UniProtKB/TrEMBL annotation:
The protein's Enzyme Commission number: 2.7.1.71
Residues that bind substrate: D24, R48, G72, R129
Function: Catalyzes the specific phosphorylation of the 3-hydroxyl group of shikimic acid using ATP as a cosubstrate.
Domain of life: Bacteria
Pathway: Metabolic intermediate biosynthesis; chorismate biosynthesis; chorismate from D-erythrose 4-phosphate and phosphoenolpyruvate: step 5/7
The keyword Hydrolase is assigned to this record: no
Note on how the cofactor is bound: Binds 1 Mg(2+) ion per subunit.
Claim: Repeat is one of the keywords in the record: no
Top EC class of this enzyme: transferase
Designated name of the protein: Shikimate kinase
Gene: aroK
Organism: Marinomonas pontica
Length: 170
């Protein structure tokens, strides 16, 4: 949360000339409602079910010609991690808790942070999610104190190196 997935994903898709999907936007479009409303009406479990359905649908129909920005909690379900592992080159945009807090402090569109102590919430989420992201990630890129364009360039360079290594080894 607050790592820059949407902004950086959009920059990467533009650089690669690929379609861009923001999974949260896909979920909102499919539901005809925004994420806070879905959380309020269906709870986190209802949202996670919708998230898995949207991810599976994109994975099924995608031919590798797109960039997908997922929500921060996508890794919470094993089914999602399997879909990501099997169908994508996964880039984990790592952001420290301090950076996440800074980047999300003014947002009212993040239901999980509408608590009395967003920092404690982010810390708890990080402790659970970080190992799951590391498990599924093909590449890990640190985003702290970096401009989105700089991070996008770093991701593009890492992808190129990874693909070059992959074709050299194969």
């Amino acid at each position: 949360m607050g790592a820059g997935k949407t902004t950086i994903g959009r920059l990467i898709s533009q650089s690669l000339g690929k379609d861009f999907y923001d999974l949260d936007k896909v979920i909102e479009d499919n539901a005809g409602a925004d994420i806070p409303w879905i959380f309020e009406r269906e709870g986190e479990d209802g949202f996670r079910k919708r998230e898995t359905q949207a991810l599976a649908s994109i994975a099924q129909s995608d031919t590798g010609d797109s960039v997908l920005a997922t929500g921060g909690g996508i890794v919470m379900r094993e089914e999602n991690r399997e879909i990501l592992r099997d169908n994508a080159l996964v880039v984990y945009l790592y952001a420290s808790i301090a950076q996440q807090l800074y980047r999300t402090s003014k947002s009212t569109h993040r239901p999980l942070l509408q608590t009395g102590d967003p920092k404690a919430t982010l810390k708890k989420l990080f402790e659970v999610r970080d190992p799951l992201y590391r498990d599924v990630a093909t590449l890990i890129i640190e985003t702290d104190a970096r401009h989105p364009r700089s991070v996008a360039n770093k991701v593009l360079d890492a992808i190129k190196r990874h693909l070059k290594e992959e074709t050299t080894v194969s």
